[in-house]
Amino acid sequence: MSLAKVPPTLKAIAHYIKIANENASRDPVIYYWCLFHAVQAGMQIDKTSPEALTFLTSLLGTLETIKKQLAGNDAITSEVVGQAHVENFAMKLFDYADKKEKAGQIDKSVVHAFYTAGHVMDVLTLFGEIDEPYASAKKYAKWKSTQIFACLRDGTPYVPSSQEPSDSMPGGSGMAHEHQYQDSNNPFDSNPTPYQPPRQNNDFGLPQVPTHTNRPIPPNIPPQPQMPQPSSTGSFGSTNVPSSGSGGGGGANPTFQEWEQIRKYTKYVISAIDYEDVKAAIDNLRKALEAIPLFMGEEKEKKRRNPLSLVTRKGTKKVLGKWRKLENNADAQNGELESSFTGEKLFGRPLELALRLDPSLDEIQIPAIVRQSIDYVNAYGLDLEGIYRVSSPKSRLDELEKEANSRANPLHFCKISSTKALFRDAHEAAGLLKRFLRALPESTIPPKVDELAEQCVCDWKGPCTCEVSNLVFTELTALQKPQRHLLAYVFIHAQQVIQQEPKNKMGVPALGLLLQQVLDTRRRTVCILLANASPLLYGFHDGVVYFFADVVIIP
Fold it and tell me: Where are its TM segments located (predicted)?
């Protein structure tokens, strides 16, 4: 599709057509989705003028041809797989450009990579609301492509972001500028190929999805000059950890993993401030604060002065919690200490804490909200087309999360007797379960399981039968009960969903891809856990090791 044919009224979509043309033979999936986005955007701009109508009709014809040629490609026929492919493509370009820029190695290929990554991230709007990391990275990539392009064009020295002083970065207004193709000095016209994402090598029908550590987190963007600066001279990306003697109250310090979480959220906060996104700034600031554990010395002193605790009586099937002041030995004499409410939310907390805040009444070792979500989908959504792919409105999921958090507050401590009282439809239950799993601060699947899964030599036409299954089983058996039970419920439930694929259209590729994203794990890990969780998916086979054969989902 020639750029010369783009009508003047549709100049805004020329970026996507150019990127599509560059990838027509290199990556047909990107070619298709970029043209698809161009059509969608073009119809919103001008679909009445004869020139625009003719051009858009021609694009539609091209799309139909591509769709027929790639009819067997899941990244074309499935939006879930397509979204992952586009995210992966954009992320690799962004990562390439970001590393080169920070090292000061700028040239036309870096400009082109930032430019392409930013506009390919625009294409993600086809699949719904863009996740915050991609939204921030998109704006940053477009701004960097503009900044570096101007330096190359004018011959001015470029200062890498890693060397910029804290007050050197302009505000978000600079990102609104877009390069014009008519500029003869525009380096984009040279069609450099800085980085070509490799073709997907599918296992089990699942495409490769970037893991958490590779997601396009916006680079360290310093705050505006008027914002108060932290007392530390180190950047948010540094790995300096305070000594054990520092910190408020003189108590425990965050672990290395917790510092990584804190760094991630503070980067998001600074990025949101630069883009004047108040909601995102507040939300990520709260997450950063919640990632810091309580300083136990100060908390113990508070409890000594005013030991206010939630007590549950033994010998009853219901949770009869009430607040009362206890003496130091009251828990041994009068009841069983269940928890001390400290204002903690249910979502985004470690699994063990979430279980204490929202326990199942029959003592199954997973939070009640997880079981209620799974129970509702099993009862009302297994045959619902697009279950787990179709997402409920964010505002509704926010309401559900707030309701779940209120149940973790002893002042509002009451269990909902029926899942019908919480959810309106199965998409809400599925969406809330995904949100809970994504918010878990620790990895749900042990890194050792990821390593073992990569060694599997099975063809995935059935359950894993090689030695890897025994090794994975050993690792899973060694997990704490809450973690093992959570994995068991998630993957056995996933098998139940896949069994209804003729109705819900959620087979192994589609649902497996979602599990990769939600659990932030590798493709082959999802493959082996789906195949060997229980005999549900492929039936019982002698000699096969089933990881969770002892677990039954009880409504």
Answer: none
* Structure tokens belonging to residue 421: 């009282």
Q: Please give the C-alpha separations between residue 392 and each of 151, 341, 345, 370, in angstroms, as whole numbers.
A: 44, 30, 21, 17
Residues 447-454: contacts with CB within 8 Å, 24+ apart? Answer: 448/475, 449/475, 449/476, 449/525, 450/521, 450/522, 450/525, 453/522, 453/524, 453/525, 453/527, 453/528, 454/522, 454/524
pTM above 0.70, yes or no: no
CATH number for the region 3-196 comes to 1.25.40.270
Please list the residues that pair with 206 across neighbouring strands: 203
Across all residues in the chain, what is the average pLDDT?
74
Q: For 337, phi and psi rounded to 5 degrees?
A: -65, 120
Q: Compare 141 and 339 and report the one with higher pLDDT.
A: 141
List the one residue out of 387, 516, 551, 369 whose CA is nearest residue 444.
Answer: 516
Place of tokens 């995102």: 280
Q: What is the mean pLDDT of residues 495-502?
A: 92
Contact yes or no for 516/206 (Cβ under 8 A): yes
Model confidence pLDDT, tens digit, residues 261-310? 677 777 777 766 765 667 777 877 877 777 665 433 344 444 444 433 33
Q: Comparing C-alpha atoms, which of 448, 453, 436 is closest to residue 519?
A: 436
For the four alpha carbons of 384, 390, 393 and 394, in that order, the dihedral sign comes to: positive
Q: How far is CA 540 from the centre of its chain?
A: 34
Q: Are 391 and 128 in contact (CB under 8 A)?
A: yes
Whole-number Å distance between alpha carbons of 173 and 43: 27
Task: Please write the tens of the pLDDT for every residue from 226-267.
Answer: 333 333 333 333 333 333 333 444 445 566 566 666 777 777
Q: Which residues of 516-555 are buried (b: 16+ CB within 10 A; e: fewer)?
A: bbbbbbbbbbbbbbbbbbbebbeeeeeebbbbbbebebee
CATH for 342-555, among 3.40.50.1820, 2.60.40.1220, 1.20.1530.20, 1.10.555.10? 1.10.555.10
φ/ψ (deg, to 5) at 290 = -70, -20
Q: Is the pLDDT of residue 518 over 50?
A: yes
